[in-house]
Amino acid sequence: MSSQNDAQGAPAPLSHEQDEDDEIVTWWGLVIEGYHATHNGLMDEIADRTGLAPNSFDILIRLLRSPECRLPMTRLAKEAALSSGGFTKVADRLVAAGLIRREPCDTDRRVTYAALTDRGLVTAKEARKVCAQSLRTRLLDPLGHERALMLAEVMRTLRAVNRTD
């Protein structure tokens, strides 16, 4: 983009289209900054109160919300947006901590499930409670129920229209 200056060397005023471009880029920046500030504070609080790193928390919550508290490991890795190797490291730590176990599939030897242990179930429920308490402070208190619901709907729409899988 070329910069144009007036006779005194001052930048030329922005066109209407440039104003709109700047505005939408600014809006997106605010979305990202707000998300990061909220997410980082939330994950820090969860880690401080439960000892769970963000990826471990994410995996335990996904298992908690799944039928029989288990999911195929490849699906869980994909949903958690982790590489196969990255997921294996997190899963190994969760197994070592007694929070999940690996279960073979009865009908397909290629499939292995990650499943919550009894200890993992207790930990996941505790972490969910901590998360909900923090979100009430970080999301509901400043936005209110209606605006928080609207935010969730907006993000659901953006996820649907921009999904690449």
TrEMBL record:
Region (Disordered): 1-20
InterPro entries reported for this sequence: HTH_MarR-typ, MarR/SlyA-like, WH-like_DNA-bd_sf, WH_DNA-bd_sf
Organism classification: Bacteria, Bacillati, Actinomycetota, Actinomycetes, Kitasatosporales
PANTHER family registered for this protein in UniProt: MARR FAMILY REGULATORY PROTEIN, TRANSCRIPTIONAL REGULATOR, MARR FAMILY
Protein name per its UniProtKB record: MarR family transcriptional regulator
A Pfam short name: MarR_2
Top-rank lineage group of the source organism: Bacteria
Transmembrane segments: none
HTH marR-type domain segment(s): 21-160
GO molecular function: DNA-binding transcription factor activity
Gene Ontology biological process: response to stress
Organism: Streptomyces spinoverrucosus
